[in-house]
Amino acid sequence: MLWGNHDMVFKDKNVVEKWINRFFTDKQSKEKKNLFDVAFNESILLDIDGTDKSILLIHGHQADFMNYVFWKFNRFLVRYLWMPLQKNFAIKDPTSPAKNHKNLIRVEKKLKKWMLKNNNQIVIAGHTHRPRFPQPGELPYFNDGSCVHPKSIIGIEIENLEISLIKWESVNQKIVRTVLEGAVPIELYF
Ligand SMILES: [Mn+2]
Question: What is the distance in A from the centroid of ligand 1 to the CA of 140?
Answer without folding.
Answer: 20
